[in-house]
């Protein structure tokens, strides 16, 4: 149990026939209350998929009874017809659950530019409603129903000492990037929370977790993170407690997304510290994380700090070349404008790589979670239309 | 003859012993006048190699007698010692040519963070000076002396009807990116020109050529484009004529650089038109050109316009999703917010790919010259320290 770990939630994941393979492709999460408070963050791409346009609209009132998700098609760049398909899906879920469509969020993931097979989607709603359950199996199936090139489901759960908890699942294997990855995630909590507190906590949590995952710089048309609160635990945490637990579960999911991202053979943390502002720290870390020459060197287990220096030097941030130091897996290779140790002293043969860049001009820091660039990434993304 | 195509120039390319392989690694270009006017543009990376710091300084007076270049080492991130090496190289060239070091530019390319073998460099100057010649062979050797992962030398030449000409060579196979590629290029002309006219013409030419080549988003620490004018033709072209011929030769070199860039299997032009500003057009074209999901799809000959839509949607430019059209190799696949034709109608099996994005919100346009992202790129950059 993860998305159904917190009290007051049921979920289902089924094969609705959207994917030709017959794999699970349809997920439903229902909040049985007593509260129906919700919050969401969405892709900043100006090209937004129909389900994002819909869910952004319904989230304005911050109340959700259910979230319906499908893999096998992104329903993006599909025009007014695609939007009608999303609307019809929400209406169908609302009808079966005896609620209003305004309380139903919709998420889709898959190929851009293709309409969904609506017969399969609508009959999938009926099948999914019958399968709704709070069991571990239902929870796992819900996580499976949103997988595309993911090789495994991603679930997380954490419980506070005072008895309330946060759970959730996520999907996303490529197009993982600035400001939310290709990513769908549904989080649940049985805490008693106000709309305002839940919204603040979600934004704080995603700012340092989902927003910091950057596999390939792509920002999907469909990125969505939703959190639903049932209040079923009867416990009202402080803002800090809520943010802390949401952040912990989100980071857990982000690290699972990174580990399973397309072609990844390295888990790379790029930390920039000593920056004048958090904005500078994020920009420098992101540029290093997205640089293909850095990423291919990491694939080759090569501590090529020269490429890191090249990458950071092209960021419009406050950087003094004489002050910068570059440390890889604990070995400082560059400092005071010149080499500080032989590159061979840094061992990059393991899967985990820690790059720490100290700009030494301020007190701000940020970490971006990324991967290497491997043959597997090229293979998967040149052979697979997604 | 190319760099020695214009009258008044001699060149040499030799093996100085900087590269362990014994390949050519040292190039000298000399301007025999009567003029010694010059102009240069340099990397915008804040981490600048020692030869860039030196050459930027000497170019302030816009007079050059010679340019000395080496491959086998970038002399970047090498501290004060590295700068002294560059200075010593310029002094040595000046001494042998009976001029001042202030008239000698220096360029280096190769691995970042390693000092150059100065015995080899300084004795290379003596050998190169003896080999100076205006022949085709000397010109070709000069182009070869700067090669790193380039598989072939890049030379270009164009002559105006009124009898003056522009020639040159370039190198650069990876780290080819925003605002000059990893790139060294020396251009020559026998036109009679003022410092001001030459500087303006070089900036105009590079703005639409070298600045528009973007293979992998990397901006090298060493990027340099120099132009030397001898005045030996006795002909003084207009500003427009000078800019036109410099642009033509620069574009010729840029397309050669693209064709020979690491792992490239496709020559891709990304043109954005109908933009509100040239800045918007460049930003959108560059983001599409740098997107790994777009680049891997092109490697797979897949007209995956959904990835192009995703990429352009994350640019902070004026974009109305309903107005955008995407055309690949002559087939419009996306328009008015939805698919306009079946993707299979666009044939991407050839090497040349033309992507045209019309934003339909203005009258500005720009083209970025890029490539696909292939297994060859990953292989070359994970196995080779550069």
For the largest interface, the chains and their residue counts are: A-B, 65 and 65 residues
Estimated helix fraction of chain A: 25-40%
Strand arrangement in the largest pleated sheet of chain A: 13-12-11-14-10-15
Average pLDDT taken over every residue of chain A: 92
Distance between the termini of chain A: 30 Å
> How do the helices and strands follow one another from N- to C-terminus of chain A?
EEEHEHEHHEEEHEHEHHHEEEEEH
Structural class of chain A, by secondary structure, is alpha+beta
Largest sheet of chain A, in brief, is: 6 strands, mixed
Count the strands of chain A?
Answer: 15
Radius of gyration of chain A: 21 Å
CATH fold call of the largest domain in chain A: L-amino peptidase D-ALA esterase/amidase
Assembly annotation? homodimer
Beta-strand residue fraction of chain A: 15-25%
* CATH homologous superfamily annotation of the largest domain in chain A: L-amino peptidase D-ALA esterase/amidase
Shape of chain A, please? globular
The total of helices of chain A stands at 10
- CATH level 1 class label of the largest domain in chain A: Alpha Beta
Provide the CATH architecture of the largest domain in chain A.
4-Layer Sandwich
Low-confidence runs of chain A (pLDDT<50, min 5 residues)?
Answer: 176-181
What number of domains of chain A? 2
């Amino acid at each position: 149990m993860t998305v159904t770990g917190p009290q007051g939630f049921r979920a289902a994941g089924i094969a609705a026939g959207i994917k030709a393979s017959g794999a699970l492709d349809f997920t439903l999460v229902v909040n049985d209350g007593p509260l129906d408070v919700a919050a969401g963050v969405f892709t900043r791409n100006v090209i937004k998929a129909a389900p994002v346009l819909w869910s952004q609209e319904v989230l304005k009132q911050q109340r959700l009874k259910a979230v319906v998700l499908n893999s096998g098609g992104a329903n993006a760049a599909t025009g007014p017809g695609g939007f009608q398909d999303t609307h019809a899906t929400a209406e169908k879920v609302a009808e079966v659950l005896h609620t209003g469509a305004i309380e139903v969020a919709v998420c889709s993931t898959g190929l851009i530019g293709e309409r969904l097979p609506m017969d399969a989607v609508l009959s999938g709603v009926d099948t999914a409603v019958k399968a709704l359950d709070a069991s571990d199996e239902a929870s796992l199936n819900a996580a499976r129903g949103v997988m595309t090139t993911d090789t495994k489901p991603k679930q997380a759960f954490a419980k506070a000492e005072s008895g309330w908890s946060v759970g959730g699942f996520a999907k996303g294997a490529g197009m993982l990037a600035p400001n939310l990855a290709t990513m769908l995630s549904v989080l649940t909590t049985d805490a008693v929370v106000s709309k305002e507190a839940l919204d603040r906590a979600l934004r704080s949590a995603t700012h340092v977790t989902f927003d910091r995952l950057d596999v390939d710089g792509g920002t999907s048309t469909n990125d969505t993170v939703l959190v639903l609160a049932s209040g079923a635990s009867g416990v009202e945490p402080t803002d800090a407690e809520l943010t802390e637990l949401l952040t912990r579960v989100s980071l857990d999911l982000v690290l699972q997304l990174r580990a399973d991202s397309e072609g990844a053979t390295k888990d790379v943390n790029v930390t920039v510290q000593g920056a004048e502002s958090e904005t500078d720290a994020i920009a420098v870390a992101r540029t290093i994380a997205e640089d293909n020459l850095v990423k291919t060197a990491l694939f080759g287990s090569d501590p090529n700090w020269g490429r890191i220096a090249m990458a950071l030097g092209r960021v419009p941030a406050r950087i003094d070349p004489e002050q910068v130091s570059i440390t890889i897996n604990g070995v400082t290779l560059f400092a005071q404008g010149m080499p500080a140790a032989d590159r061979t002293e840094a061992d990059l043969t393991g899967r985990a790589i820690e790059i720490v860049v100290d700009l030494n001009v301020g007190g701000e820091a940020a970490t971006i979670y990324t991967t290497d660039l491997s043959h597997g990434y090229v293979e998967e993304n040149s052979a697979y239309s997604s």
